[in-house]
From TrEMBL:
The keyword Transferase applies. It comes from Kitasatospora herbaricolor. InterPro entries: HATPase_C_sf, Sensor_HK_TwoCompSys, Sig_transdc_His_kin_sub3_dim/P. The chain crosses the membrane at residues 37-53, 65-88, 100-128, 140-159, 166-187. It holds the Pfam family HisKA_3. Keywords: Kinase, Membrane, Transferase, Transmembrane, Transmembrane helix, Two-component regulatory system. Residues 208-275 form the Signal transduction histidine kinase subgroup 3 dimerisation and phosphoacceptor domain. This is Histidine kinase. GO terms for molecular function: kinase activity. It comes from the Bacteria.
Length: 415
């Protein structure tokens, strides 16, 4: 008995948005409507060809009228139990226990008809063996098939079945049940694979949402902070009747807003990857608006030879986040220093280091915000890490972003 059912695909739609169900069978899928159930029962009916032996026995005139009538009734009940099991099992949950009485009825009919009507009815044990393999759990299916085959063999020996009939019926009884046990395991494996694929898709969607949230936080946090500063400057210039200076600030606000719109679109599309030179220029503009002097070492623009694009992009994000923090929280800061270096860990791993320090009030007692948490996640994705704390002599705030330099071939420093 197969458990193949019509497949359903999210892109199979008919006219008017109605879902179109194709006639492609999908092992382990659930029956969705009546038409699918009828198609399945039609396929199951093809296996009824093996009931030709009991039918031939009833039509051969070897039994009396009463025995023949009882035989037809028993065969009809057996066939109804078989098809009912197929139909109900396809529409009930996996833990439905109503399937066991049907299998028990089929076994009773197989034993009774074999004793009462002869060896031709031993064929019913083949159907019973297949059903036993289906309804039992995978760990018990093989044992159930073995017990059913042993029962069929015992009945055949008790009724003194012909040796040729014995081989022709008992062997298919075992092999049919064994094949169905393997099919059930295959279906269970396919279901687990589909569930795993759905879980992977869900994780990928969650990771994409997390990436988008980090990008939008960093992009808009930096841009909106700069727009706020320039708006305040424009207001001050207007109060002082400095029209040209205020107009210049408004033009800068328009430029930052347009660039922010481009950055957001690129972030949504997944194409946004900042670079250190671009972020350093943007940092200089933002810090100048906040009246903070930027002191950047020349090595920052030179970068690190062999540093991958993902690692370089993460360092650019680190620079953007650090500058945004200085603009937002570095009240009283006058100088922001950016340096580039490299270091070797105890296990010989090389790291590129980007360090940003200001002379503001320091980290304070509050914990890291969303920006630093997102930056730490970005660094973890490339095998790096984030270090934050007070600057030199306990003043200001220092941020160090470290990413591995796996492609740089340089001798390790002496111990």
């Amino acid at each position: 008995m197969s458990t193949s059912l019509p497949a359903r695909h999210p892109d199979d739609h008919g006219e008017g948005g109605q879902e179109h169900v194709p006639y492609v069978n999908f092992p382990g899928a659930a029956v969705q409507n009546r038409r699918q159930l009828l198609v399945k029962l039609a396929w199951m009916s093809l296996w009824m060809i093996y009931l030709v032996y009991p039918v031939k026995d009833l039509t051969g005139g070897t039994h009396g009228t009463a025995a023949t009538g009882v035989g037809w009734v028993a065969l009809a009940v057996f066939l109804a139990a078989y098809l009912s099991l197929v139909a109900l099992r396809s529409t009930r949950p996996a833990d439905w226990h109503g399937k066991y009485p049907f299998v028990a009825l089929m076994l009773v009919l197989a034993v009774a008809t074999s004793f009462g009507l002869g060896e031709a009815w031993l064929t019913l044990f083949t159907y019973a063996s297949v059903c036993v393999a289906i309804v039992l759990p995978p760990r018990l299916g093989l044992r159930g098939v073995g017990v059913t085959t042993a029962l069929a063999l015992a009945v055949a020996l008790l009724i003194r079945a012909d040796p040729d009939t014995l081989a022709a019926i008992i062997l298919p009884c075992f092999l049919g049940g064994l094949a169905m046990t393997g099919l059930q395991r295959l279906i269970a494996t396919m279901q687990e694979l589909r569930e795993a694929r759905a879980a992977v898709a869900h994780l990928a969607a969650s990771e994409e949402r997390l990436r988008l949230a980090r990008d939008l936080h960093d992009l808009l946090g930096h841009s909106l902070s700069l727009i706020t500063l320039k708006s305040e400057l424009a207001g001050r210039f207007l109060d002082q009747d400095k029209q040209e200076a205020a107009r210049a600030q408004v033009a800068d606000i328009e430029s930052v807003a347009r660039q922010s719109l481009v950055d957001v679109r690129e972030a949504v599309s997944g194409f946004r990857r900042p670079t250190l030179p671009v972020e350093l220029a943007a940092a200089r503009t933002a810090l100048a608006a906040a009246q903070v002097t930027l002191e950047a070492a020349p090595s920052v623009l030179d970068g690190w030879p062999g540093l991958g694009p993902d690692e370089s992009g993460v360092l650019a994000w680190a620079l953007r986040e650090a500058v945004t923090n200085v603009v937002r929280h570095g009240e009283g800061a006058t100088v922001c220093t950016v340096g580039a270096d490299r270091t070797w860990e105890g296990d010989g791993e090389r790291y590129a280091v980007l360090e940003i320090t200001d002379n503001g009030p320091g980290p304070g007692k509050s914990g890291p915000g969303n920006g630093l948490s997102g930056l730490e996640e970005r660094l973890a994705l490339v095998g790096g890490r984030l270090e934050t704390g007070p600057g030199a002599r306990g003043r200001g705030f220092r941020l160090r972003a470290l990413v591995p330099l796996r492609t740089v071939s340089e001798p390790s420093p002496p111990a």
